[in-house]
Amino acid sequence: MSDTTTTPAHDTSAQGAASGGKSVVPTSGDRGRTAISQTVVAKIAGIAAREISGVSDLGGSAERVVGRVRDVLPGTSTASTQGIEVEVGERQAAVDVGIVADYGVAIHQLAAAIRRNVVNAIEQMTGLEVTEVNVTVHDIAVDDDASDNPRVQ
User: Fold this and answer.
1) Could you say which DSSP state residue 27 is in?
2) Do the beta carbons of residue 45 and residue 132 sit within 8 Å?
3) Which of 11, 76, 115, 153 lies in disulfide reach of 16, CB 3.0 to 4.6 Å?
4) Residue 129 and residue 123 in contact, taking contact as beta carbons nearer than 8 Å
5) What is the pLDDT of residues 26-70, one digit of tens each?
6) Residue 59 contacts by C-beta under 8 Å, 6 or more apart in sequence?
7) Measured between alpha carbons, how far is 149 from 25 in angstroms, rounded to an integer?
8) Is 150 exposed, middle or buried (0-12, 13-18, 19+ CB in 10 A)?
9) CA 86 – CA 133 distance, rounded (Å)
């Protein structure tokens, strides 16, 4: 019989602080560990929030301006983390989502749908427990067709 030494599959707080904002999710068995960056969790949350009908855009006005400039520049794409802030611990994550809602959408129902989708996506893809998803509505997007047809000619 040989002696084997196993190490825990989870990170200690000193190692977690040194890992640069990465979460360490316990894996099944003692064959290693998985580190998940805050950026990855933020991207998952951003994509999940954009999937909900009634979300016109993510982020506050400054973030949206930078996003529009980024859209115009060749070789760049929309940042999937725009309007998303995350805090990732060893086993849990908290998410703040800033949105622009479409006019006419029930905001409380929209926020609940965003929460459900973000929680499901993060928990299914990372194994992290999502403790909270805070939704801030920065603006309402109004259809611009009304400005094309002036009331007085």
Assistant:
1) P
2) no
3) 11
4) yes
5) 555 578 888 899 999 999 999 999 999 999 999 866 555 555 655
6) 67, 82, 83, 98, 99, 100, 138
7) 55
8) exposed
9) 9
Residues composing the chain:
153
Angle at 120 between CA 118 and CA 123, to 5 degrees: 100
Domain span including residue 120: 35-141
Q: Do the beta carbons of residue 123 and residue 130 sit within 8 Å? A: yes
CATH of the domain at 131: 3.30.70.1350
pLDDT, one tens digit per residue, over 67-78 is: 565 556 666 555
Q: How many domains does the chain have?
A: 1
DSSP helix/strand/coil, 59: coil
Helix, strand, or coil (residue 86): strand
